[in-house]
Every structure is written in structure tokens, then in C-alpha cells.
Design goal:
By secondary structure, the protein is of the alpha/beta class. The chain has a single domain, classed as 4-Layer Sandwich (Purple Acid Phosphatase, chain A, domain 2). The protein is about 40% helix and about 20% strand. The protein contains twelve helices and 14 strands. The chain has helices at about 1-20, 25-40, 80-95, 110-120, 120-130, 150-160, 200-215, 220-225, 225-240, 265-275, 280-295, 355-365, and strands at about 50, 60-65, 95-100, 135-140, 165, 170-175, 180-185, 245-250, 260, 260-265, 310-315, 325-330, 335-345, 345-355. A seven-stranded mixed β-sheet has the order 5-4-3-2-12-13-14. Strands 1-6-7-8-11 form a five-stranded mixed β-sheet. The protein has a two-stranded antiparallel sheet with strand order 9-10. The chain is globular, with a radius of gyration of 20 Å.
Length: about 375
């Protein structure tokens, strides 16, 4: 029976999803992010909260897009689990606050109960951060069901406890050289009609659309599947961040890391140019090899940009096809793009890019 409905409905369902989902529009992205940012500042509890911090002793790790699934071959998190759990232990021991920025679970392809049971040990490791008051969680488009208290109470709180809050965004607030700055964090699906429309359309996606997709086993995620949309979406989110005053914007959603408004390929090209100018053959060889390695990953990339304001960061994701994960660290006066990768069955932490946080804040002005 399911196969019959798949055959009958796959084309119209795919057409409808592409029609109303991921074609980023600047006006909608700007309006949605403006509203969320203003709501958090105004103290709207469902939007998110403001967390003050001092640059000298800040310890935040920002992760996104784990897409924890059912441990089948469609589970994008399966190969990355060891790196992710090793990273969790590292940041727990080091006293970091864990900020999980949405699409934590893959609810388009799996029921909430299946995801929770399959990933219970990983979730309990995350819950340890909450027990010490070092945890913030947001929802994304693939776990939009967590927006609603009924779903939270049924599935998440039995694991995390009643202290758990799931919001849309978060502001980290600090002062530097007498000026106030915000680090604004949210998933980044804002402006996507399918998961960021009015309250009714949002409910339809969570309560009706997602279960239909699960039943038909039709997974449609055009943003992360399309390099053109990825670049467009990242550029638009950068452009929005550049209009804000004294603010760093950190998102996920696109699965492509961005550090200080440069994505991974831009960063490598910039480093290669510098190494060539300095005539460093060893560094040139390493960078050329890395660019070749990432060539397939960025094969459809169309925007080659050098953006002036270091206002936009993207965590990347915790479900790369090779099992790597990427994330953003804020550790004292240092902000870093970090990759965890497994070599000889041992997970290693590798800093891809870093800069003094104070310098980035000063450059915003």
C-alpha cells in the first residue's frame, strides 16, 4: 500500500515542496530575522533569551545540524556519532556551555519516538550540560516539531528534564571598550516559506506535512542539496548581518561552514594566495591538496566572494558524509571554526580558523 501511495504522490509532493520551500528570498529572510532579533531583545520568552558574558572567561560551543536519525543507511548522523560524542566529552570536561542550533534530530524521516530511543545515550550526554546550567537548544526546519510544548513534554523532557527550553534564537551579550555587542544565534531557516510562514502554515508543516513525508519516505531538503541555494542563502544571511549594528550572526541550516563571512573554499583560496606570495611550497602543496579534496563538495559553487565585514559565521554541520563534524567555539577572547575528524579510530580536534573575538567585534564598527 505504501509503495502505491509513493508512486502516486511522489511527483506532486516533490513539486509542492519545491514550490513552497527552499528558494531563499532576501526580503523574507531580512523580515524574519529582524522580527526574531527584535522579539528576543524585547524579552519575548518563546523567541529566546539574552545571556550576558564576559569576553575574558567565555566558554561556548555552538553546534548545528546533527540530524540524528534511526541508525539506518538514511541516517546522516550515523558516521559522525563517534566524533560528536568525543567532542561532547571534551567540551563538558572543559566547562563549555553547549548551544545546539536546530535540526538536532531528523524528524522528516523518522518519528520522534524512534529518534529518541535510537539516540538516547547521545541525548543523555547532552542533558548533562543542562543539569549544570550549560545548555541551550533551538529548533530548525527538520525538528520543527520541538517548537511545540506537547512534543517537548512527550519526547524531550523525559530525557532532559523539566528545565529544558526550546527556543527559536539566543543572544549572547557582552561589552567591549565601552560598547555593547550581541552574538545572535538561530538555525537560519528563517524566510523559508515551508517552515517559517504564519502560525497556521508552521503548524501544518509540523503536524501534517512532516508525518506525510515520513509515511511516504520522501525526504526533500532542497537547501542542503543545492550548492546554488546554499551560497545564495549564506550570502543573504551575511547581507542581513552586515546591516546590523555591533552584532555577530551565527547560524547553521546550509551545512557549509562560514568563518568571519568567508566559507571554507574562500578561506582556503585566501590562504593559498598568501602562501604563494610568501613562496612557501609546503604550505602551497597542503592547501592545493585540501582544495582538491573539497572540490566535489563545492562542485556547484557559484559565488566567490570576499566580504568585508566579519559579521557572519556558520557552524557547518555534524553530519558530513565522511563522518567529520564542524562547529564554532568561543573560548575567552578567541573565536574558532573547529573540525573534529577520526584518524585511526581516534577523534581529533582541528582548528580550521581562529581570531581574537575582540578584534572581530572591533571590525564590526
Amino acid at each position: 500500500m505504501r509503495r502505491f501511495f509513493q508512486w502516486l504522490l511522489r511527483k506532486p509532493v516533490t513539486w509542492f515542496a519545491n514550490k513552497v520551500s527552499s528558494s531563499p528570498e532576501k526580503q523574507k529572510i531580512f523580515a524574519s530575522l529582524d522580527k526574531l532579533y527584535a522579539d528576543i531583545i524585547a524579552g519575548k520568552e518563546s523567541a529566546g533569551c539574552v545571556v550576558p558574558f564576559n569576553i575574558a572567561d567565555a566558554k561556548f560551543v555552538i553546534v548545528s545540524d546533527q540530524h540524528k536519525g534511526g541508525r539506518d543507511f538514511a541516517d546522516d548522523f550515523r558516521l559522525a556519532e563517534n566524533n560528536y560524542r568525543t567532542a561532547l566529552q571534551y567540551y563538558y570536561d572543559k566547562g563549555f556551555t553547549l548551544i545546539s542550533v536546530g535540526d538536532c534530530e531528523e524528524l522528516w524521516e523518522n518519528t520522534p519516538s524512534k529518534v529518541i530511543e535510537t539516540n538516547r545515550l547521545v541525548l543523555l550526554e547532552e542533558a548533562r550540560f543542562l543539569q549544570q546550567g550549560r545548555y541551550h537548544r533551538m529548533f530548525g526546519n527538520h525538528d520543527l516539531e520541538w517548537k511545540y510544548e506537547i512534543q517537548q513534554n512527550l519526547y524531550l523532557k523525559p530525557v532532559f528534564g523539566d528545565k529544558l527550553k526550546v527556543c527559536e534564537g539566543l543572544l549572547l551579550n557582552t561589552t567591549h571598550n565601552g560598547q555593547e555587542y550581541n552574538v545572535f544565534i538561530t538555525h537560519g531557516h528563517q524566510g523559508d516559506q515551508k517552515s517559517d510562514g504564519n502560525w497556521f502554515s508552521t503548524w501544518v508543516v509540523a503536524a501534517l506535512w512532516t508525518p506525510i513525508q515520513r509515511f511516504l519516505e520522501i525526504s526533500i531538503n532542497t537547501t542542503s542539496d543545492s550548492f546554488e541555494l546554499i551560497d545564495k542563502h549564506n550570502v543573504m544571511m551575511y547581507e542581513w548581518s552586515a546591516t546590523q549594528k555591533n552584532m555577530i550572526f551565527v547560524s547553521g541550516h546550509t551545512h557549509k561552514p562560514v568563518f568571519a563571512s568567508l566559507d571554507h573554499v574562500d578561506r582556503l583560496n585566501k590562504q593559498l594566495l598568501k602562501a604563494t606570495e610568501l613562496k612557501e611550497p609546503a604550505a602551497i602543496k597542503l592547501l592545493e591538496d585540501e582544495l582538491k579534496f573539497r572540490q566535489a563538495e563545492y562542485a556547484g559553487k557559484k559565488f566567490h566572494k570576499t566580504l568585508a565585514i566579519p559579521s557572519y559565521f556558520n557552524t557547518g554541520c555534524c553530519c558530513f558524509a565522511d563522518g567529520d563534524i564542524s562547529l564554532i567555539e568561543i573560548n575567552g577572547d578567541n573565536i574558532s571554526l573547529v573540525k573534529w575528524q577520526e584518524e585511526n579510530k581516534v577523534s581529533e580536534r582541528i582548528v580550521l580558523e581562529h581570531a581574537p573575538l575582540s578584534y572581530v567585534l572591533e571590525e564590526l564598527s
